[in-house]
What we know:
By secondary structure, the protein is α/β, with parallel strands linked by helices.
Amino acid sequence: MAVKIENVGVLGCGLMGSGIVEVAAKAGFDVKVREVSDEALDAGKARIRKSLDRAVKKGKLADDDAKVAWTRIGFTTQVAELADRDLVIEAVVEDLEVKNELFQELDELCPPETIFASNTSSLTITDMAAATQRPSRTVGLHFFNPVPVMKLVEVVRTIVTEDEVFDAVFEFAGSLGKEPITARDNSGFVVNLLLVPYMLDAIRQLERGVATVEDMDKAMVLGCGHPMGPFTLCDFVGIDTLHRISEIMYEEYREERYAPPPLLKRIISLGRFGRKSGKGFYDWSGDEPVPLPV
Ligand code: 3HC
């Protein structure tokens, strides 16, 4: 079956979806993005606009290129509008049922050659592929936050992925200006398999009273040259997202290092979801983050 990727559809215009839309449009692809409501779509639109403006301001993108990229993006609330896409990337909530419902809806609408991809952090691609009539044309395309800045994309193949499909998607990731790597379809792929236990372990050490949030962050930035410490990173990824990923990975591997520490749950109960909600391990409402009680 023919493999071509000339236009792209994205399901979800949240933090990750909006970034994927932006990089695809900047790379010259015609992109359509679908959100569940006009409100969510408007928020996604504003996020993309802000990021393009930031790239121009930072000298990363010419003003004219930002304008052209913007014209390549179509916004919709209708899944059916993505029926003409060569590649559809889902970046919706980390819930297998929600993802599979969307893929099954699209499966009926799209021609058989359309490739499905998931930006899942921790679910397996096989569990999505198996829910469609096109398991050999369903792959993983895992981007990193902030998508316009982070160079890596994990391209994930299952045991039934067609070689031509994998190669085309791998090439597509490269054409976005990213550095793709090949990952096997195991929960967490490569990065989250290593990064999630690191973040969870920082929380466990905090529970043990090893040091303060601020000092542990400082330690990893100044001692290891990380761009941000583990608690800033937790707030950046989203406390609720980290918790969800942790639960999925724990269920998969049944290894303690993936289990959500109790403190993570307490922070969520308090409605502290990280930077996006204004509070997580830090209060982000002012100019500088302020550590909160833990
Ligand atoms: N478009 C293009 N480039 C942009 C941009 C935009 N919208 N915004 C910023 N940039 C560029 C800047 O120009 C700058 O480039 P330069 O170094 O060449 O000058 C670079 O990006 C960094 O930007 P800033 O100077 O504004 O910001 P910082 O230096 O404070 O860096 C950060 C911010 C990139 C977020 C950095 O702190 C970082 O790398 N943090 C770690 C992020 C991380 O680990 N992400 C992975 C999370 S895990 C994940 O996503 C997986 C998921 O499944 C959980």
